[in-house]
């Protein structure tokens, strides 16, 4: 039997490593199961929106900060969540940026913002249920792990 090609929805997202005094800014969000999830500021791109524009828009929404001078760090891409109802082809960009303003999120899902020492970032990463949530997929955190360790790569195939 031949393998049939299939079309996957494409999920494009951009996140920004905001660094100040060897601390990384993380967003605290409450998940559906009530737990707190720590993530990078950023999020999904709208149709027709570049990853850079999505990064600027989402960081402002989630943190209140205005970011400028985006610098590309890495791209993670490939099939994600295969076999679940959320399976997709992911293009996830990571950037660094200059920033200004005061921390004041307007996103109602953001319950807090925290400047975390680089050495403590990995300890806040929790993997676990529900597995269909891409943020809980360990692959998503590999670029961040490498970034905080000072060894980022430009490309991460899933």
From TrEMBL:
Pfam families for this protein: NUDIX
Keywords, in A-Z order: Hydrolase
Record GO terms (molecular function): hydrolase activity
Cofactors, names only: Mg(2+)
Keyword Magnesium: no
SUPFAM superfamilies: Nudix
UniProt-listed InterPro entries: NUDIX_hydrolase-like_dom_sf, NUDIX_hydrolase_dom
Domain Nudix hydrolase intervals: 9-138
Name this polypeptide is given: NUDIX hydrolase
Organism field: Deinococcus koreensis
């Amino acid at each position: 039997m031949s393998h049939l090609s299939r079309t996957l929805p494409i999920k494009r997202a951009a996140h920004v490593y905001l660094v100040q005094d060897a601390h990384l800014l993380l967003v605290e969000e409450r998940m559906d199961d009530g737990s707190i999830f720590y993530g990078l500021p950023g999020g999904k791109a709208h149709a027709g929106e570049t990853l850079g524009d999505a990064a600027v828009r989402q960081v402002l929404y989630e943190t209140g900060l205005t970011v400028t001078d985006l610098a590309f760090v890495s791209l993670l891409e490939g099939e994600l969540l295969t076999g679940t109802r959320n399976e997709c082809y992911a293009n996830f960009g990571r950037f660094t940026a200059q920033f200004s303003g005061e921390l004041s999120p307007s996103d109602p899902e953001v319950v807090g913002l925290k400047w975390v020492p680089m050495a403590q970032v990995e300890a806040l990463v929790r993997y676990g249920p529900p597995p269909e949530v891409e943020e809980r997929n360990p692959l998503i955190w590999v670029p961040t792990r490498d970034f905080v360790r000072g060894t980022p790569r430009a490309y991460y195939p899933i």
